[in-house]
Amino acid sequence: MKVIVDTPIWSLAFRKKSHIENNIITDNLITLMRNTQIAVIGSIRQEVLSGISDKNKFYEIKNKMSVFTDYVAQTSDYEFAAECSNECRRHGIQGSHTDFLICSVAIRNDWKIFTEDADFFEYEKYLPIKRYESK
User: Fold this and answer.
1) CATH number, domain at 19?
2) Beta bridge partners of 71
3) Sign of CA dihedral 33, 60, 131, 42
4) Considering only CA atoms, which of 109, 99, 107, 108 is closest in space to residue 130?
5) Could you write out the DSSP letters of every residue in the chain?
6) Using alpha carbons only, what angle is made at residue 135 by residues 31 and 26, rounded to the nearest 5 degrees?
7) Structural domain tally of the chain?
């Protein structure tokens, strides 16, 4: 099964500071890489690379992520993302367009989502998403 790795996971993995949470995240990410289970969508790639002011660090991370081919979202993915957003809004839950695209792609492909973003705990109350649990 493929797993969409969300921006907060990549951010933790690329940090130099080592702590328990980072090690667990990184170990899980390495396992997913070894099992070729990682799915990347372009908007996550953009989020990961945005805001890196150091050009050398930007190109280092860009090169590391270049080994992953983007899943190309279809029109139906964007339309379903809008449905997901609308469903959550009906219940008072707001989210980003990228988050709902992640949900849409994951649901339609029966993939899990690897994230530490608390918003996804709210989304899963109303959307049939499956989160990847760190081991």
Assistant:
1) 3.40.50.1010
2) 41
3) negative
4) 107
5) --EEEPHHHHHHHH-S---HHHHHHHHHHHHHHHTT-EEEEHHHHHHHHTT---HHHHHHHHHHHTTSPEE---HHHHHHHHHHHHHHHHTT----HHHHHHHHHHHHHT-EEE---THHHHHTTTS--EEPPP-
6) 50
7) 1
For residue 99, the enclosing domain spans 3-131
- Token digits of residue 73: 């979202």
pTM: 0.91
124: buried, middle or exposed (CB in 10 Å: 19+, 13-18, 0-12)?
A: middle
Write the pLDDT tens digit of every residue in 54-73: 999 999 999 999 999 999 99
Question: For residues 77 and 105, is the Cβ–Cβ distance under 8 A?
Answer: yes
Query: Looking at the DSSP assignment, which residues form a beta bridge with residue 70?
Result: 40
